[in-house]
Amino acid sequence: MKRKEIIKPPKSLRKVPTHYCPGCGHGIAHRIVAEVVDELEIREKTVGVAPVGCSVIAYDYWDFDVSEAAHGRALAVATGIKRCRPNLVVFTYQGDGDLASIGIAETLHCANRGENLTCIFINNAGYGMTGGQMAPTTLVGQKTATTPWGRNPQRKEGFPLKVCELLANLPGVVYLERVSLANPSQVVKAKRAIKEAFLNQIEGKGFSLVEVLSPCPTVWRMSAPEAVRWIEEVMQKTFPLGRIK
Fold first, then answer.
1. What domain range includes position 235?
2. By CB atoms within 10 Å of each CB, which of 87, 90, 137, 159 scores lowest?
3. What is the DSSP code (8-state) at residue 232?
């Protein structure tokens, strides 16, 4: 009997081996971005922008145009592309160290200008590629390579930066939502949010950002199941899920 194919890989995702660590959320995020591009039938006019970080070679996985950007400058590069070619659908794919630390000025000003762009912000509470240092999103008490005793605001290490809440009061921002990759139902919600962010751009509404809480078992020194439980039981207390704007 001929088997019925229920699920097909998205056309916008290349069939190549992954370089990501076991249990990493980037692979899931890449897949749902590719599914959204396919469903919206925008593959031939989509341009992604990938800066420095774990996602630096996202162009190896997506089968559409992707531009590289210097660390933190993805939204500046995306702004240039979108203004020169406003008919294109342009998005950035950025980690927390990139978007919320070295790139925080680009993030704030791009959002404040209301650039008609889509930003996918992967929050794994640390610098993944460079060795697990503290990031702006690292939780209070969380141990990293640079906070081996845990992040402590009393030691002048500050508090976790909540990007969605920070951007919410800017009038140029039309859509902010925080989602998670911790379980299948949350992955479905994440895809729905990313699709809405792309549709906002297609309809010319302005700046949209989707923050994705993503597991990083290697940096967190956890197993993959422990990492997704940590998102649900610990991380979401600091970064609650839902539509912010």
1. 26-243
2. 87
3. I
- Per-residue pLDDT, 123: 95
The CA–CA distances, whole Å, from 151 to 73, 135, 146, 218 equal 27, 10, 9, 18
Quote helix, strand, coil % in the chain, to nearest 5: 40, 20, 45
Structural domain count of the chain: 1
| Whole-structure pTM value | 0.94
Q: Which 3 state secondary structure label does DSSP give 189?
A: helix
pLDDT tens column, 12-51: 999 999 999 999 999 999 999 999 999 999 999 999 999 9
| Of 196, 220, 218, the residue nearest 209 (C-alpha) | 196
Do the domain assignments include residue 2? no
Inside any domain, residue 17 = no
**How far is 25 from 30, CA to CA, in rounded Å?**
9
Residue 18 maps to a domain: no
| 209 is a domain residue | yes
Query: For residues 230 and 182, what is the distance between their CA atoms, to the nearest angstrom?
Result: 9
Q: What is the pLDDT of residues 114-129, one digit of tens each?
A: 999 999 999 998 888 8
**Which residues, in sequence order, are CB contacts of 61 under 8 Å at separation 6+?**
13, 14, 16, 18, 30, 34
Alpha helices in 69-223 (DSSP H): 74-84, 96-97, 104-113, 163-167, 184-202, 217-220
